[in-house]
Amino acid sequence: MPRYVLRVEYDGAPFVGWQRQAEGLSVQQVIEEAASALNRGRPVEAVAAGRTDAGVHAAAQVVHLDLDREVEPGTVRDALNFHLRAHPVSVLAAGLAPPDFHARFSAIGRAYRYRILDRRSPPALDRGRVWHIPRPLDARAMAEAARVLVGRHDFSSFRAASCQASGPVRTLDRLEVQRVGEEIVIEAAARSFLHHQVRTIAGTLRRVGEGSWTAADVARILAAADRRLAGETAPAAGLTLTSVTYPDGLCPV
Amino acid sequence: MPRYVLRVEYDGAPFVGWQRQAEGLSVQQVIEEAASALNRGRPVEAVAAGRTDAGVHAAAQVVHLDLDREVEPGTVRDALNFHLRAHPVSVLAAGLAPPDFHARFSAIGRAYRYRILDRRSPPALDRGRVWHIPRPLDARAMAEAARVLVGRHDFSSFRAASCQASGPVRTLDRLEVQRVGEEIVIEAAARSFLHHQVRTIAGTLRRVGEGSWTAADVARILAAADRRLAGETAPAAGLTLTSVTYPDGLCPV
């Protein structure tokens, strides 16, 4: 059974998230149904690098799946897009993967972007893509506080109660905050993230941006390893999975 | 009756266009209803600088309307946004205008952006915001052909049959084509445009980009003053009104 790897873009708004749920439509389901149509009706399982939550977007999710027979990768991409046309999900690229390639377990890095629209008026063109904060935030203070979180730490304060990861220790390789016009853009990269980690970081940095907390407060919150101390979980709509990295040469897309 | 001027952002997708129609929801209607709520229920007429078609977006439409009593401009902005919250329409700024200010007739310039997504795979995140052209376009050839159209010309070849303007002559001040990543972005500016002018230009430049036509063909099409010779009217979704200009100091937003 040849293994294919896909790079996939999606708008998370209409979905219950990547993963199949008892109720509601998931990105996994629409991709598996499209792949099954291409696989002569036989079921196909799709595995993603990052199991994005409901409403979270992807600019470059990586997915693997096995087909019964070998199909030219360009045909896989185009056929999947044909079957996906009713949904805001697009296969940007497809490639034949080594048989031991695993979208999730082979990945050595994930990057996310969190967008805050920092202006008085609500978004019209970017509805569902940003967190709207009507009061002015201090992006420089947020950037300074972000530096406290970079590195290897116990991130218990920034982890959802629902998090199923075995431990709370993660290494945050990058956490940058920049003002870009009316937006404040947070870019985060790590080998892997805890559940809601980026959104809890965004909710915490917002408190710094509005002047309620300082970088020293964020350091204290981190050290306390207590979720009740950090800021709110920022809305899913502002979050986009922007890239997934693999060891050199392993991922063909 | 104090006159207010608004800078307004909207997603054109759910609307029949700026202007009220017998059927369907217009941007004008939702703004007039919001303004009426602020005007103690008395009807308000809203006049826009550019009467955008169904599906066309605005990053900075300019609108004027009169209220029965004077209200602080920041309150006008916030109250309108409160009443508009069910719709992807946002008032970015409001100001008190001179009584003879007219959003449409006082304007001395309009600028539009047309976005083409030039890649094999369809858009997911930019659905409804771009024209998807799956085959590679030559942006440099498009930019060269665009230069033919700049200046004062009879634009009959680039005018909808439905155009109600008194004459077909317009002065195109700017028409630039640039590749930006996977997109080809067309920026157009003029004192005023004919109906469908930017979209017909985009449809024509696309034919140049795919190699069917040259800049010389575009010059011939322009000179012929015959709509049947130009390219198709590009889809509304790719078009955004990006700015409206007024004589110095006239427009407070």
Per-chain topology:
The structure is a homodimer of 253-residue chains.
Chain A: E1 3-10, H1 27-38, E2 47-48, E3 57-66, H2 73-83, E4 89-97, E5 109-117, E6 131-132, H3 139-149, E7 151-154, E8 169-180, E9 183-190, H4 197-209, H5 215-224, E10 239-245
Parallel strand pairs in A: 3-10, 5-6
Antiparallel strand pairs in A: 1-3, 1-4, 2-3, 5-9, 5-10, 7-8, 8-9
Describe the protein's architecture and organization:
Two copies of one chain form a homodimer. Chain A is α+β, with helices and mostly antiparallel strands. The first copy, chain A, has two domains: about 5-105, Pseudouridine synthase I, catalytic domain, N-terminal subdomain (Alpha-Beta Plaits, 2-Layer Sandwich); about 110-245, Alpha-Beta Plaits (2-Layer Sandwich), CATH 3.30.70.660. Chain A is built from five helices and ten strands. Chain A has helices at about 25-40, 75-85, 140-150, 195-210, 215-225, and strands at about 5-10, 45-50, 55-65, 90-95, 110-115, 130, 150-155, 170-180, 185-190, 240-245. In chain A, strands 1, 2, 3, 4, 5, 6, 7, 8, 9 and 10 form a ten-stranded mixed β-sheet that branches. In chain A, a hairpin with a 2-residue loop joins β8 and β9 (about 185-190). Chain A is globular. Chains A, B: It catalyses: uridine(38/39/40) in tRNA = pseudouridine(38/39/40) in tRNA.
